[in-house]
Amino acid sequence: xxxxxxxxxxxxxxxxxxxxxxxxxxxxxxxxxxxxxxxxxxxxxxxxxxxxxxxxxxxxxxxxxxxxxxxxxxxxxxxxxxxxxxxxxxxxxxxxxxxxxxxxxxxxxxxxxxxxxxxxxxxxxxxxx
Length: 129
Prior knowledge:
There is one protein chain. The chain is an alpha+beta fold. It contains four helices and five strands; from the N terminus they run H-E-H-E-E-H-E-E-H. The chain has one domain (17-125): Ribonuclease P, Pop5 subunit (Alpha-Beta Plaits, 2-Layer Sandwich), CATH 3.30.70.3250. 46% of the residues lie in helices and 26% in strands.
């Protein structure tokens, strides 16, 4: 079986940073302190991937405001981080849930360019009366 090589563009896309908004919610606590959120993120990744596997997943808290953190990770690690946060349901013997929202400025720009390209293709293939 031949090994497929990634293109330079695919390699660069995997190495770019992706930012996510993350919020940790408990039933009895509306706003969670930053240190508790940081601890829960680290524990969720350690729980799912173990001590060895979690060392390759880097997550950085960029900012924290009103219980919501802006975290940054590499694009190739986004799925692992999202899975770890989604599966994490107990923190310090209390039920919890992560709410995750993706920031996609670059994706929006790419989608707009694709839509423009599709419009151009449609205009080229339309029949004239």
